[in-house]
Write a structure and sequence with these properties.
By secondary structure, this protein is of the alpha/beta class. About 50% of the residues lie in helices and about 10% in strands.
Length: about 1500
Amino acid sequence: ADYLMHCGQAGSAEELARLDQTLAEHKLARRVVAVAASGGSSAAPAAPPGSSLFEAVSQAARRLEQEISQNEIQSAAISAVSRRCVDPITERAQRKSPSRVAIIDDDDDDDDPPTPTALLAAASVLLSRPIWVFTGVASEKNVLLVNPKHMPRTVEPLRLAEFWGSYHALVPDDEAAAAAEPAEAIVSSDPEVLADAEEALLAADETQLPDLKDDLETSLKDTVTTISETERWSKENIPEKLDLSSYSEPLEGYRRRLVDGAGLDAVCLGDNGVGKSTLVDVAIYNTLEDDNAYKPRLDQGYVLEAVNKLFSTAEADPPTLAQLIADKTLLSSKGTEVVVLEHDDAAAAEAGADIAQLENDFRSYAESPGHMRPSFKKAHFLLPTGRDDHATTAIHTFVRYGGGVHMLVTKYTVAELKQQAFLFVAIRRELGDDDPEDIENEKQKDELKEAWHTFLKVTQGQTTDLPELSDELPAADELPESWSEVKVCDAVLKLTSSPHTLYCGEGRSLHHDRKQIHEVLETMNDDERLERVVAKEVALFVPAAVLEGGCGFIDLPGNNDADPGSMRQIREGIERAGAVFVVLKRDIAGDNNTVKLLKDSGLLARALHADEPLKLVFLFNRELSQQLKISDIDTEAEAETRRALEENTRKKFKKMLSDVNRSAQNRQEPARTEEEIAQIVASTPMRAIYPMSHTACKLHTEFVEKNADNKVLAEGVFSHSNMYWFSGVLDALNRDYYVRELGRLVTKTIPELLQKLQSGLDDAAHTDAGLPSKLVEMAQSWLKGANRLTGPFGTLVEDLRGKLRKLDTTGRVDNALFPRRTPVGFELTEQSPPLSPSPPPFGEGYRSKIENLVANFVEEGEAIADFLARAEERSSQSWPTLKNSLRHYSTAMMAIDPKHNGLLKGKEILPVVFGSRSLVRVDFSQLADDEPESILHDFLQDFKELVIDLLVSSVDQALQVNGVDTQDVVVETLKESFMTCDVHALLDERFSIKCFFMPKRSPPVDLQNGDVAAYFNKLAAKERVTALRDKVLKKATDQSSLGEVHALIENNLETTREAWRHQLATTLSKFTVTQFGLLMADLTEGRKRMGGGLIKQLLRAFLQHIVQTDQMKSNAALRRELSRYINDFRRQNAALHSLWTRLEKQSDPEELGRAAARHVDMRRLREAVVRQAGSGANLGSPAQKMPALSLVREDAPKWWHPSENFLRGDMSVAQLNALSAEMLSKYRLGACQMKTEGYASLFHAVAKLAWGQKSLKSRLLTLNDAAAQLRAVCAAQVLNYCAKKDERNAKVAGFLHEAPASDWKEQYIALIKSNYPGDLFCLWHLACHYKLDFCIWRPSAEKLPPILVTQRDKELPTAAHHLIVTADSDKADGTPIDLSTITPSEYEAQWWFFADDRKVRFSDAKGKVHLLATTDDEAEASTKARLAVPRSTDGVEWTSPSSYRITADVPPPRPTGAEIHHRPEQPTEAERAWKKARR
């Protein structure tokens, strides 16, 4: 309210002065804008140039690489509900903002226009940044802090200034001084041409649409690269290099999890023959990796994802695929048999032909309305498909992402198979002398028959010619007396000799490996094979984009499968699923099998669960009818059919939910209201799908582009197929986690890295008198012996390790001096209070304490007691019902059969024991939440403070022993920055609940998401089965009558619950103690990468901080270089923050699916281009990051347009010197010249810039090899570009100045593939293919603006590679060149490039062009060594046309007077002859 009142008042001179003073105190400056402020009177002071709130926010956001529009802000402000936005006064806010802040309270009437505070709050939410508005009011409350999302203090805010109704975007003083007039607007040399965007040849093309996934991966890679460069720079320039591994590892880990992380799965549920497996196959087929990009054969370090899951954290690294192929016994210690499916060239060709035929079938289906739909069965694709009468999927099958195609089969144990076989014995004895044909209940007949067949398969290995019930059953006295006496046949024993079997190809052919795995899987699902009997679970791993990021499919048996264990598999699949897709032939009202499936599977009860609702989706597979044609999809009749399907299904679904809810109410279990049920029904997605038609139109682009009618047909299919939406639902399963983790990186990890680097500069600036010499000498001396145990550093580390180990085991440290934290520091006293607020009892270590805390929570806590009390009450009510249903001995024996885990359909024992049919959650928040007053949170924070106290006291003692005054202001400053930027940044993360419980290898989804309570609930659910097995199920075979079975269950209800409590206490305590052991190991021992433990790492970091600060203090050049790296990190974090906010805004499954499809299409297009370029292409993705593009206004670039395809630059040494000197002074970019004896083509320059010598050598490529591959890629891109649309040929010929009717295209492509120097059209194709941006500079006596060639149309990049182009002004015969008519065959150009001067060192010799040493490519030899080597034509010389040393941050004067008008140096006759010969 105060701020709104202030905004309505006129400004004054005093207010403006106060505002300027406030900005000066905070080292901020207003960004210059062109629009003057409005309002005021003649008596008021002249207001500084300002703009509207929208423009100021937009300008400030663009500085941080974010975009926001006025419409977005207004819409968000209008739609937002009234909220109270408060920015907490944090320590950082106290330091960097006024001591008191204003508070926003938006209570605006919805009918009124949004107030400035509402608009600021909306902008803050949209940008995920706080906004600080500086004012000149005469009050301590002179800055408005807007932070409705309560972002962490490490997030850089948007800073604005407000004066008299106008707003200003603020920038730091140093940034304002460096670029007083930043180049914001992009100018054009030809406004008339560029204004007509529709007619521009290179207007937004479909291949240039933004791809957030690629952008995210590139930004993460660039940030990690900058960390490596910073470490390398510090190693070369500072005695003690910076160790930034604790920041790079989270970024690298996040990058890896974007592809192969664990996540939630999607279950496909429905009858046999409704297309569940086909739907999965279609999703994988549409996103499958290209065979040419199949990586396992190339990556020697690749470890199969299934192998990774077999190894725990503490074990050695698992074997790679190459090692497994060489030695198949490497997994024998894991009980895993390895079967390598050998490669065969002929079979691989056949598999490729199968997939090619499948693609042709899709094309034919698109072209011919009556053509039979393609068959994945004929193509032997992946999952078994194509059988309607019984299940093609009989085994619980997981489909997950894998770099190589492989499969892990988990088998039943021999004991489990014996118990399954013994079920027949129990039923046979109950039958006695009765004829099985006289059994009236058909279901009991089927159970008897299936049990008999299972018995024969297990004991005799018989899978064919199985008997019918009309055949004579074996006599009861001939059967085993107990399950342990069942004899398993040799064939089954051989199959179960190992608990797991891993099937994998050699990684040489994607489709060959896929087909072989398919054939093995099809064999396992064959009911005439023993493999189906022993297989318990199958996990498939496939390189498909739809599976990236943790998404997976669970393919379950159909409802009408005769296997009695199928319902158990369905229940288990639903329990672990994130979404369930119910696939229907028709509406659910007419599908009795699916209705029964939904009831029996527990799916409806799960959908009603309030604490953990399930994502339930109904899909109507309309393509099961062969009469449906593609042309029918976008008709009114089909639309009416879709509406009827959805309407009838919603009615039936509501009735089913109401029935289940009513039953829960009758059992006095948690239930939902009618309004809540109606809301669930209304929000449940129901869509008709047309997967085959969608795929056909997607693949056959030639047919779609043929004419307008085909385009309309395809658009109708894409609009109604719902396959984009289906893909988006899958993408959304784990998307929240990845967006949340990215937010943590951009708001915590990278800002903490910036804070650490900035602290070095700040400490150097604060120590005017320098560091105490004794402190520096001590740090240098101790660091020299840091790896020796006998030195002072090693002694200190060992002493700390010993103290921590004593705390672990005894809870006490044998030392009379204990540290005590005080408000101003630390002091040592003889009788300080205990180190921890709640130390363990005497003799009990902290390991025992955490074990007891967990055990006591389970054994004595209220949460478990309340759960068990409710279970006991409900158990007494539900047991009579269960007892009444167990009327027959055979049925009772099946109910207590261990293989059903007490969950036999209709005879569930487990819910009776624990009081509910639905999943009842235990409240573990008091134990495992990462919040104050949570038991484990408080314990870890107490222990962390204890570790910090020990660390600080040890440092103080060491300093005092070496004569350093610990009360010195300089020492206190160093300690404070060290505590903030190193100790707390590292230990806060390691002692968090999420990190404490995170396994280092293959973490479960809940722990990966930081939801420890949910993981504990799953352990609790698992232990319920364990307790029931121990007390009831394992005694099943000892029961000889129905009464004994009833007594066994009834007498052990309470016993089972108590056993569960004790077992859960043991399990949770053991798991927690294991994690505590890992924490202690990280503190005291650590892995190799941690340098011997966190304690040693932190002590070493403190000593390094001392040495680094001393170096920074005495060397201004080091401070400048470090500041540049800090600015790089700020820019990269701003880019990642922008991506994060864009990802947060995406929530529509349809848009997510389209984005995912576009990502796959672009990837496949690039792969196709590379494949077309040549089979030997192995250049891969660019390895060098692009430098920042931050140009001052006088260098404002212009967009490239085809009318300027051929550029000219002055070749004179004077102009090259002038441009190079100017660039080095302004942007710290030095010019590098290609070899003069080799040809300096565009392709050589791009290869050197984007890959670098080191990367090329790792691929066994010379620079000429790389340039040749770039030429081939460019030629393929040009060919594809011109082939897309017929009219493009003439347009491209026009700007190449060729006759459209000639064979210009063939000649142009031939030139590119041979020795053409390259033009901007070539560069644009390389930019689009490799997702790069370029800024091209032209040396000239007159100021020429640089040219931007970017991967996206009219989107200003924030980073770009810098190229230099020069060209002769005359032809070989001396005739002047006219660039408006020149053809590619006549164009002569030389391409050089600018490189970051941190990568190239320049000489100060005068008057000569020198070779330059490089630190970017360490493979380059020194200058003298290179001069001794004869020149070749396969590389680049790091030479510079400039011959000066930088002495000031001002550009050297440009040539004046006669120097401007002198004729550029002309080539000699020899040079002209050489050029002519080259042509």
